[in-house]
Structures are given as structure tokens and as C-alpha cells.
Amino acid sequence: RRVLFRSGGIAGVGLAYYLAAQGQTDIVVVEANELASGCTRWSLGGVRQQFSSPLEVELALRGRAFWRSFESDFDYPCPYYQDGYLLATGRPDVWDNLTKAAQVQCEVGATEVQLLAPDRIADVAPWLASHGLLGGRYTPLDGRFNPSDGLYGIAKAAKRLGVEIVEHASVTAI
User: Fold this and answer.
1) CA atoms 165, 23, 146, 88: torsion sign
2) Cα–chain center distance at 13
3) Angle at Cα 96 formed by Cα 124 and Cα 125, nearest 5°?
4) What is the DSSP letter of 87?
5) How many other CB atoms are found less than 10 A from the CB of residue 91?
6) How far apart are CA 114 and CA 86, in angstroms?
7) How many CB atoms lie within 10 A of CB 142?
8) By CB count within 10 A, which of 37, 43, 128, 154 is most buried?
9) Mean pLDDT for each 10-residue chunk of the chain (174 residues)?
10) How far apart are CA 55 and CA 78, in angstroms?
11) Helix, strand or coil for residue 9?
């Protein structure tokens, strides 16, 4: 039975890869343009666990682990830049939400989350003036990657597993 995807982005190609890794055969990814020509191309590639629900934090922690080990797992260059992630505010309601979310993050396993007083924000973002800020929430292990590099690495691995990727072809009927 043939599995057909009409998406040459990281989600479609990633799904094709993981289905092939689980033993599914006869998978075809069809892209009207070229790989990474849509949302993946414009994605910033930010990796953070600064979310407020346990499920979101768990998924984000798994995503961070995935991107940190990508190069060795997929044997393809896609550096993970561990720059950290800072959210700062001068609004009391937002600060309250940031502190509550930090507690959720710690409970789920994102134990490196830091709540920073305004005078400590300059330690991680010296270019940011802290006047008027109530504080910030910082996660030093978070960072970024290049989504197009990730997509091409997953596509290469998918092809090794037998996934066919067709570019510059439109799906007109199934």
C-alpha cells in the first residue's frame, strides 16, 4: 500500500522518515517546488521549553534533545547553537504568568530555568536595558538551529530508508 505525502517541509519529510524507520514501505513525498520552499524556509528554528503546560514543556524538552543530537543521529551537519532563551517583562500580569510557568517547567524536568531580577538580566543580555522591567525567565540550554539544514538531513536519511522524494511536481489527483 503506497503512502503519499504532499509536503516537502520538515513535518511531511519527517513523518515519512519515521514511518520508514518503523518499517512502512512505498512512501512518496511530493513537493510542488523544492524541499524547504514553504514554512520550513522561513522558520527561525528557535528551540525553547518556555511553555506553561506540562505537555508543551515535555514535547519541547524532547525537541531540544532531538536537535542537540541531530548531527550525530542523522550524520548530517545541522549545528545546534545553545544561546539560551530569555523572556522579560515590565507588566505584573505577565511576570506572574512567567513565574507560574517556570514552576511547571521545573516540575516537568526543565530544571535549569532561572527567574532573574532586573539587575541580573544584563548577565545574559547585556544589550538589554532593564529599566522598568520586573524580571525575566531564562533557560540557558535553549537555542536555535537552521530548519532547512534539519530538513535536508532528515530527507537524506529518509532516502536511505527507501522514501522517494519528488520535487517540482504537483499532485492533481489521488
Assistant:
1) positive
2) 15
3) 10
4) E
5) 12
6) 9
7) 21
8) 154
9) 76 94 93 87 88 95 96 96 96 97 95 95 94 96 95 97 92 72
10) 26
11) coil
107 alpha-carbon distance from chain centroid: 21
Residue 88: other Cβ atoms inside 10 A: 20
Q: Strand locations in 1-144, DSSP E?
A: 3-5, 27-31, 46-47, 85-89, 114-116, 135-139, 143-144
Predicted local distance difference test score (pLDDT) of residue 171 = 72
Residue 43 grid cell: 522558520
Phi and psi at residue 134, to the nearest 5°: -90, -25
Neighbours of 121 (CB within 10 A): 19
* Euclidean distance between CA atoms 84 and 70, whole angstroms: 18
The 10s digit of each residue's pLDDT in 76-95 is 999 999 999 999 999 999 99
At 108, which amino acid appears? V
- In one-letter notation, the amino acid at residue 90 is G
For residues 29-57, one letter each, b for 16 or more C-beta atoms within 10 angstroms of the residue's C-beta and e for the rest, the string is: bbbeeebbbbebeebebebbbbbeeeebb
Grid coordinates representing 171 are 499532485
Residue 25, strand partner residues: none
Let me know: does 49 contact 64? Beta carbons within 8 Å: yes
